[in-house]
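Sync notes, pocket subgroup
Present: LS, DG
LS reminded everyone that the earlier model was apo-only. Rerun requested with iron/sulfur cluster included. Inputs:
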Amino acid sequence: MGLTIAQKIIKAHLVSGEMIPGTQIAVKIDQTLTQDATGTMAYLEFETMGVPRVKTEKSVAYIDHNTLQSGFENADDHRYIQSVAAKHGIYFSRPGNGICHQVHLERFGIPGKTLIGSDSHTPTGGGIGMLAMGAGGMDVAAAMGGGAYYITMPKMYKVNLTGRLKPFVSAKDISLEILRLLSVKGGVGAIIEWGGEGIKNLSVPERATITNMGTELGATTSIFPSDEVTREFLRAEGREADFTPLASDPDAEYDKIIDINLDELKPLIACPHSPDNVVTVESVAGTKVDQVCIGSCTNSSLFDMLKVAALLRGKTIDKSVSLSISPGSKQVLTMLSDCGALSDIIASGARLLECACGPCIGMGFSPNSAGVSLRTFNRNFEGRSGTADAGVYLVSPETAVAAALTGEITDPRTLGDMPVIKMPESFKINDTAVIPPVSEESAGSVAVLRGPNIKPFPESKPQEDALTAAVSLKVGDNITTDHIMPAGAKILPYRSNIPYLSNFCFGVCDKSFPERAKEMGESIVVGGSNYGQGSSREHAALVPMYLGVRAVIAKSFARIHAANLINSGILPLTFKNADDYGKINEGDTLSLSGVFDGMDKGEIQLKNQTNGAEITLTCAFTVRQKNILKSGGLLAFATKN
Ligand code: MIC
Ligand code: SF4
């Protein structure tokens, strides 16, 4: 049987296991990336592991999330990351150099290589034919130390694109269409390969928009072939030598095949508060808009920005709209400036933000009360923008500009003719904002600089054979990591201070949770399906662990979050019968007995002491995961072994 692209890369990197879907495999990791919001913790963990020099081919530390320095905390973390990177063999991308995924694609991504990143949108690298996956900080730390990355062997899905995008319909609309078709759970346990003759007309940045948003499907990753389009992109980046062709075999088999005809696609929009709440733009046209934000790792490439500039040229944005533009990288910004397109953007009345995540993670530019914000980003979860009652919509750059010009949601096809965008043959290369590590010989003289905001790592407890604890919180379906551990400008600076962060845990669902959990000592959280979707932030597991959460029982889990729970020593258990979810209420006391035996058998019995209900829970832990849980988390396990 022939192989898919992902299967070929996995086969070439397989350290243990067999490529049987649903079973655990370990893959060798060639490259890692971190960003600052998860990086500080990842490097603290890496230091604990005691490995002097990273063992990957390339590891890069980016500063792109916590760039708003309203106190010493973020600046201290930047200095810590810069010093730890220099010492241990990691490249350091300075604040202002751009969003990790955009810069990595431009400067470091290599077709056929494996990449894990402590950020859920690491699959952006799939746009260039990498097997790129989001992971928790501890897993990234382990990979930097030469450890393999353990995942469940995914199923293979294929999306066949036919036809060609019409003017004012773009890659973002393809992402929204697949979300409309599959939902935020539709990609769980799968790798999505994009193919068909329709991909020939999609440039690498457009492909990267699509693989980036594959994260919102819950997919392990998404990937495009490495073809002549890829070669052209690498050539423009002065990196043609990194090119290798990569395609699936003609007889490769897929678990699901989806066809999308690009000729028929219309401008789409994801309505609040979920990326799969997708309708056509024309069906909500006329809705008043307060704010428009263009940028983020989904839509901040030079191609996107040139389109935006061309559509804004000679026009003024509506007086009721505030428009922000954040180019994805210094390279994009420099080229926009050199060709004069930046002036068109500025002249229109847009506000220029730095090359960073910015509004996407609530780092400034929060909307007004009950405001309507149209964003070219990938997530519109409740509260994420920093304004609790804002309504965030996800759109393409074309639709974003249309709304900025008219002050209301507007089908961009009504704007007239789409200007023709000419991409330069080569990009302007200037890597001075990427600081290489010091040589191995000089590493001893580098002092690691720690600020007072770095608090000791919380101690986890080994799992025991029996657990009796009360339910501190019961939540519904699709709970995101933004619900569990919110981000935003006020909270993000404390990512290396778990005790302080814990005051905000589950704040979006129930502000009294942290107090209650602390009073209970040990407790259990109950959730619905797709629990923990969204970000890779391990803080969504570390903080509940700090607050005494010993187990999470849910109808199903998102991949990275389930791994983070295990890495933090928390038991993720699934209802065998989803209806049993109704037999547990907040405050009930639950008893789990025979946990070790149950972990081996894949079933653990639960007794609800409050109402007498007997419930069967399932789990599918590998030997390694059982040992991690019995050790009290990955860090304890890794330092012991
Ligand atoms: C996000 O988009 O939610 C983030 C912020 O980039 C996160 C990482 C984090 O929480 O630091 C992600 O997607 O993994
Ligand atoms: Fe940054 Fe937003 Fe991308 Fe996360 S989704 S990496 S916050 S731009």
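DG: The radius of gyration is 23 Å.
LS: The chain has three domains: 7-264, 268-415, 467-636.
Action: DG to write up.
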